[in-house]
Write a structure and sequence with these properties.
disordered C terminus, globular, 20 helices
Length: about 350
């Protein structure tokens, strides 16, 4: 039986929660990655595992409460801003998160120490898994039924437990990103609270179930084979940046804006340009409207929503590369400094 885990300072736990909440809003970024980056991963896994077995300590409840407060605050306060940044300034958002993710690599690599065959194989397995996820194509949207939302929540919970597995990316693959993240927006919650609850309640129950199961599995692995498990986590961490190629832009920028999407939907439905301009406070010309009718002829509202999430890669200029590199370095320095300030992780026993 190991000694009790060290008490985590309140400000560190809250800040870790903020990073976790923010990361889970961004497709391709994992909350578990940033918890690992700030040196709280093993502590988090141990606390969740004990809570799922109904054996939490007082420090576990305090730590998870503070972490949860930070995560909830980040989600409620930054949901709209995160979606805006990812949709319209993806190069900047992803550059920062690449740096934040890679900043914890040196510290985690020290946990593996001198890797042997088993550690190398675990690293490659984790890296290959994340590369495979990054290369997966998006599927069709799943129905928003209670069962589907529960299952998707359980799968998306991996983002809080497994570094590199992005819960938001899971939602994108399932076609439920806008529905679930949109339901978290303060504006939507205030206007249609019950509608948001119907979506968020089964999803949240699935998240709780998924976190409980995965945390116990990882805790057991950390106890039995800490070096191999940390090598696997390192592979997941490094592989997670493969899906964060920053130089992407919306294929149809006008549709990314809520007003733009709604305006085009009305125009294709036969609304007059002047009516749409007045309704959405726009200044669309007849020439632009005619181009919309050519580009989006025969498209339904659902088709337009799908088009609003299409991104294409572009060839960056030297200035683009330098700006992205600068943001990566800032993110790297931020989490590497945080990680250096933490004591080395130690596997926790119940």
């Amino acid at each position: 039986m190991s000694s009790a885990p060290e008490k985590v300072p309140a400000q560190q736990a809250v800040f870790g929660g903020v990073l976790m909440g923010l990361a889970n809003l961004v497709p391709g970024v994992s909350g578990g990655t940033l918890i690992l980056a700030v040196g709280l991963y093993d502590r988090f896994i141990g606390a969740i595992a004990r809570c799922s077995r109904l054996k939490p300590t007082h420090d576990d409840l305090r730590f998870l409460g503070l972490l949860g407060m930070g995560a909830v605050a980040a989600v409620l306060a930054l949901a709209g801003s995160a979606v805006y940044a990812v949709n319209l300034h993806r190069w900047a958002a992803y550059s920062v998160f690449i740096g934040l993710t890679l900043g914890s690599v040196p510290t985690l690599a020290r946990e593996v120490k001198r890797p042997k065959f088993a550690e190398a194989l675990a690293f490659l397995a984790g890296f290959a898994l994340l590369v495979g996820i990054a290369l997966a194509s998006e599927g069709n949207s799943l129905p928003e039924s209670v069962f589907v939302l529960f299952i998707v929540g359980a799968v998306a919970a991996s983002s809080m437990v497994l570094p590199g597995i992005s819960g938001s990316y899971v939602l994108v693959l399932c076609g439920l990103y806008d529905a679930i993240i949109g339901a978290l927006s303060p504006a939507v919650l205030s206007e249609d609270f019950m509608g948001s609850l119907v979506i968020l309640l089964p999803f949240g129950v699935g998240v709780v179930a998924g976190v409980g199961l995965l945390s116990n599995a990882i805790r057991s692995a950390l106890e039995r084979a800490p070096r191999v498990t940390h090598a696997l986590l390192l592979g997941l961490l490094v592989g997670s940046v493969v899906g964060l190629w920053p130089f992407q832009k919306p294929e149809h920028r006008f549709l990314v804006y809520d007003r733009g999407l709604a305006a085009v939907t009305d125009l294709l439905g036969g609304a007059a340009t002047s009516v749409v301009n007045d309704k959405y406070e726009l200044d669309l010309s007849e020439e632009l409207v005619a181009q919309f009718e050519v580009d989006f002829a025969g498209k339904s509202a659902e088709d337009l929503e799908d088009l609003s999430r299409e991104y294409v890669r572009f060839s960056p200029s030297t200035a683009d590369i330098l700006k992205a590199l600068g943001l990566c370095i800032l993110g790297f320095l931020f989490t590497s400094r945080l990680a250096r300030n933490q004591k080395p992780n130690a596997s926790e026993k119940a």
